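Sat 14:20. Reprocessing the chain from the morning session after the first attempt stalled halfway. Input below, unchanged.
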Amino acid sequence: DVRAYATWAGKRLPTEAEFEFAQRGGLERKAYAWGDEFKPAGRIMANTFQGHFPDKNTKEDGHAAAAPVGSFPPNNYGLYDMAGNVWEWCQDWYGTYPGGAVTDPQGPATNPIGWKVIRGGAWEASEFDCRSASRWFEGASPFISDFIIGFRVVLVAEEQRQFARGQATMPPEDAALGAVGLQFGDRQADRNAGVTGIAARAV
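Finished this time. Tokens:
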């Protein structure tokens, strides 16, 4: 379903590296998308598991499950729910990170048991899972559905430039959700991407 939607929309899933880049919102080496404190000055910044994990959710954030998109502050790139609410599919197969410094890694070619990377944490996840560096995995199968996983898609740079010049029209479903652009300036030109503000959708 995810691939079918992305193909229909002329977009794709973000790579794991792109997702983390977007999630951090420019805050390099910070624990969360908003800084190093999980609840700065006592403020709840994302929809996560509250209370004693995993057996007692106090619902301090006002939500027992997924919250409406935009219920919590965006990050510095204007992107909502990059941490918490629902885990989000990435394009990459799950595997160990390569050694040394790597620019724009793409992940392994496959995974022997069909695991794909998911990122961002969710409403049923601990604060540890919602860190910008945290990663997990899920089986990528058409027979699996999970109410804690969603996705967002990315635009290729040329399409984004056309939108900016007025030479292309933003699809109505993107415009209605307040799509925002984000250039990954350190990528090769043919691999630049812009993360849209599309709501995470249940798989």
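The first strand starts at residue 51 and ends at 52.
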